């Protein structure tokens, strides 16, 4: 709700094109950031799974905080929204990759699917 209000939803002076562009730019930044993060850090995620899992949790909290604070800084709205999206994209890549590594670690009896389901 904070993001929608910040991009102008509910204001008569806001345009649909402006809101769409801001939302598109935010999502594009997150997608490109996730791809680049996976490219540069993908090989490190297996060997340091616990550390990257902690980093992923921290980055998720940071991304949500940026989304909540973005309406308070209207002049920097786009930058803050893009940084929040970038932070959450790092979270998605790091948490998904480390989940697989941690599941494999706990699957001692060749039961990775059972561990993942539980």
Describe the fold and architecture.
The chain is an all-alpha fold and 118 residues long. It has one domain. 78% of the residues lie in helices and 0% in strands. The protein has helices spanning 2-6, 16-41, 44-47, 49-69, 77-106, 112-117. The longest helix has 30 residues, at 77-106. 26% of the residues are buried.
How many distinct helices? 6
Sheet-strand content, in percent, reads under 5%
Number of domains: 1
**Low-confidence sequence ranges:** none
Mean pLDDT: 82
Task: Give the number of DSSP strands.
Answer: 0
The proportion of residues forming helix, as a percent range, comes to over 70%
What is the CA-CA span between the terminal residues? Answer: 34 Å
C-alpha Rg (nearest Å)? 18 Å
Largest sheet: none
Shape: elongated
Order of secondary-structure elements: HHHHHH
Structural class: mainly alpha
Keywords: Membrane, Transmembrane, Transmembrane helix
Family: Belongs to the RUS1 family.
Subcellular location: Membrane
Pfam families: UVB_sens_prot (PF04884)
Task: List the defining traits of the structure above.
6 helices; RUS_fam; Protein root UVB sensitive/RUS domain-containing protein; transmembrane helix; UVB_sens_RUS_dom; elongated; about 120 residues
Write the layout of secondary structure elements.
Blueprint: H1 2-6, H2 16-41, H3 44-47, H4 49-69, H5 77-106, H6 112-117
Describe the structure in brief.
The protein is mainly alpha-helical. The protein is built from 6 helices and no strands. It is elongated.
């Amino acid at each position: 709700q904070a993001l929608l209000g910040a991009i102008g939803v509910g204001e008569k002076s806001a345009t649909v094109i402006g809101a769409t562009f801001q939302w598109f730019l935010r999502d594009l930044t997150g997608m490109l950031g996730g791809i680049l993060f996976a490219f540069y850090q993908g090989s490190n995620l297996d060997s340091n799974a616990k550390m990257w899992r902690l980093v992923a949790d921290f980055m998720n909290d940071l991304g949500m905080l940026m989304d909540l604070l973005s309406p308070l800084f209207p002049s920097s709205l786009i930058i803050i929204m893009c940084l929040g999206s970038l932070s959450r994209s790092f979270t998605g890549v790091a948490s998904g990759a480390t989940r697989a590594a941690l599941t494999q670690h706990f699957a001692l009896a060749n039961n990775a699917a059972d561990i993942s389901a539980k």
